[in-house]
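SAMPLE LOG
Freezer: B-3
Tube label: C17
Construct: single chain, 316 aa
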Amino acid sequence: MTSLSISSSDLRHAASLLRARRLVAFPTETVYGLGANALDAEAVKRIFEAKGRPLTSPLIVHVACEEMLPRVVAGWPDRAHELTQKFWPGPLTLVLPKKPAVPDLVTAGLPTVGVRMPAHPLALALIKECDLPLAAPSANRFTELSPTTAEHVRRSLGDRVGFILDGGPCSVGIESTVLSLATERPTLLRPGGISRTQIENVIGPIEVLTKHTEGPHASPGQHPKHYSPRTRLLLSKHGEVPQGGRGAYLQIQHKPASADVQVVYMPAVADAYAAALYQTLHDLDAQHFDWIAVEHPPHLPEWEAVLDRLRRAAHP
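STRUCTURE (predicted):
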């Protein structure tokens, strides 16, 4: 993956803002992140304020090299090494016991922290330039659609972010997989860009979080309503669409039951669908439809992350 041409002065400026407790939006291979110094509670607080994010939702910390890990995590088990050898840099977040230097605000008060190494060259260059681990959730208002372009960030956050590094469209298009290695058995907390099958091929069977309790969340992305366009979104199993109103339909295989609807043909392959999903929903949101109906994806393991995002987006 290549980034757009970014001047060294822009990179230095972004790094100086981060060191000065300001917020910088930057591209990763998954979505654009809203970054702040992960070791500075005052800087991290600004992320929550800009997004309107509840303090019960922890943040993921981004590093540029393994040498940064001891500043964030308290240990590095063999399973973590096996997984990162295979999937880093990439869309896999590992949850491990945190170092005391990581503020409780980053982890929702939990003793664990999620950490990953993004695969976008601009993200890595920024982290290296400022020499800071960066706490960075998606660069949008809380529960809204995640941004996969710099323009999406501008529309959602406006002047709430100090600077936006434009690295072009994100290639993966949905958030990272979050896997806890702090539990008795490795536990999938959020499906994402690395599938459960891919993980199990490396470390064997894992558990899947199915119940969400009140209070601090073990991972980002746990709220029932999340990743949502402003337009009402609903899942359609056999081409059913609402009666009345002006609507759009995202089709994989089954045609909509009504001809009076704008059809958007989506990829039939899960990875390609994921890469196109948020951009498609952003585009439809801008057209002010009354509703967006989405054909239910196949019940197959590789579609798990896409289905998670659509279910949360469709939550009333």
